[in-house]
Design a protein that fits this description.
The protein is α/β, with parallel strands linked by helices. Strands 1, 2, 3, 4, 5, 6, 7, 8, 9 and 10 form a 10-stranded mixed beta sheet that branches.
Length: about 325
C-alpha cells in the first residue's frame, strides 16, 4: 500500500452531466498519473433535482477508483456541502474540486511529487484558466513564475491566502481544518477555503504553482450570487477566524484582498458605479471590523479612481 492517501472532494448540485465527465476524467488521470498513491473520490449530492443521483449510481459501477457518494435529503448550501465532505474525509491529504471544473494533464503527478519530496508541505495552490462552452480556454493569473514555495507564517498568509477564493484543485493537509473552522459558528461563510489556506500557511510550507491551471467552467448556471460588496463581507470573516485578537493584521489582509481582487467591488460588468454601492454596503454590513470601516473612506477614493481609469481604458480599446 502507498504511504500517500488523497481524498478528492466534489460537492455537487444540479450538474449531473458535468459531474459524470469529471469523475471519468479523474479515473483516467489517476490511472496514468497516480500509481504512487491511494485515491478516493468523494461526492456529496446536495439534493439535486436533475439526473445526478442516477448518474452517480452508474459511475459507482464503472469507476476503477473508489467512489464514495452521499445523497443529501435536503439542500444544505454550498458551504455546508463543502464542510460536510471535509468531515467525511479520512485521508491525510484532500483536494477540493468543483463539479464542473477539471484538472489539467499532469497536475496529479505534480501534486504527488511535491508531497513525496516535501512532506512538510501543508497546501498546494494551482493556477486557473477560464473554460467556455465552445471549448475556448483563457488563462488567468498569468504570473511571471512557474511555482513558488512559501515558508510558514504571516508573510505567507498575506501573499497567497486570498487565492483560497477558488475551491478547485487546492490540496490541503486535512488535520485541523474542520475543527478550527467550525470553532466559531457565527463566522461560517461562503469562502471556507480562504480560512483553510490561511490556516495551512500558518502551520507549514505552501506551494503556489500558477503554471498548472485548473479549468474553471464559466458558462454554467451559478447557484449563488454576490452581495453589493462582491462577498467581501464573507471573505473578511475568515480573517476574524485566523486572527481573532489581531485587528491590525485583519485590516492588512482585508486591504490585500480588496486590492488584489478589485473586480469584486464593480461586479461582472466592471462598472465603477457599482463600487459606490459596495462602499456603502461595507460601511453598514454587520461583522465588518471597526478598523475596516475607518479605513474605507481613505482607501475607497484610490480604488474608485483606479476602477474609473480602467473602465474608460476598456471603452477606448
Amino acid at each position: 500500500m502507498s504511504s500517500l492517501h488523497l481524498d478528492i472532494l466534489i460537492p455537487t448540485f444540479n450538474r449531473g452531466n458535468e459531474l459524470a465527465k469529471n469523475v471519468r476524467l479523474l479515473n483516467e488521470a489517476i490511472a496514468t498519473e497516480g500509481s504512487v498513491a491511494d485515491f478516493r473520490i468523494m461526492v456529496s449530492n446536495n439534493s439535486s433535482q436533475d439526473n445526478t443521483a442516477e448518474l452517480l449510481e452508474q459511475l459507482q459501477k464503472e469507476s476503477d477508483v473508489e467512489l464514495r457518494t452521499f445523497q443529501q435529503p435536503e439542500n444544505i448550501g454550498g458551504e455546508g456541502n463543502v464542510v460536510f465532505l471535509l468531515q467525511q474525509a479520512t485521508a491525510d491529504h484532500i483536494m477540493f474540486l468543483g463539479d464542473d471544473d477539471f484538472l489539467p494533464a499532469g497536475y496529479l503527478a505534480f501534486v504527488l511529487e511535491e508531497l513525496s519530496q516535501r512532506p512538510d508541505t501543508r497546501a498546494i495552490v494551482p493556477g486557473i484558466a477560464s473554460l467556455y462552452a465552445d471549448g475556448t480556454i483563457i488563462p488567468d493569473r498569468n504570473e511571471y513564475f512557474d511555482r513558488r514555495r512559501y515558508s510558514r507564517g504571516l508573510a505567507s498568509v498575506k501573499a497567497i491566502s486570498y487565492l483560497g477564493h477558488q475551491i478547485s484543485g487546492i490540496v490541503f493537509v486535512r488535520a485541523g481544518l474542520a475543527d478550527n473552522y467550525l470553532r466559531e459558528p457565527s463566522l461560517r461563510n461562503l469562502y471556507p477555503t480562504i480560512f483553510f489556506l490561511g490556516y495551512s500557511c500558518l502551520r507549514g510550507e505552501t506551494v503556489y504553482v500558477p503554471s498548472r491551471k485548473i479549468l474553471i467552467s464559466q458558462d454554467n448556471v451559478k447557484y449563488w450570487s454576490y452581495d453589493a460588496s462582491g462577498l467581501l463581507t464573507d471573505v473578511f470573516m475568515n480573517y476574524q477566524l485566523l486572527y481573532p485578537d489581531r485587528p491590525w493584521v485583519r485590516l492588512q489582509l482585508s486591504l490585500i484582498m480588496i486590492f488584489r481582487q478589485p473586480t469584486r467591488l464593480v461586479g461582472r460588468d466592471k462598472n465603477p458605479v457599482n463600487a459606490l454601492r459596495a462602499f456603502l454596503h461595507l460601511l453598514a454590513a454587520p461583522g465588518v471590523d471597526p478598523l475596516m470601516r475607518l479605513s474605507l473612506p481613505m482607501v475607497f477614493p484610490v480604488l474608485y479612481v483606479r476602477q474609473v481609469l480602467r473602465y474608460f481604458l476598456r471603452k477606448l480599446k
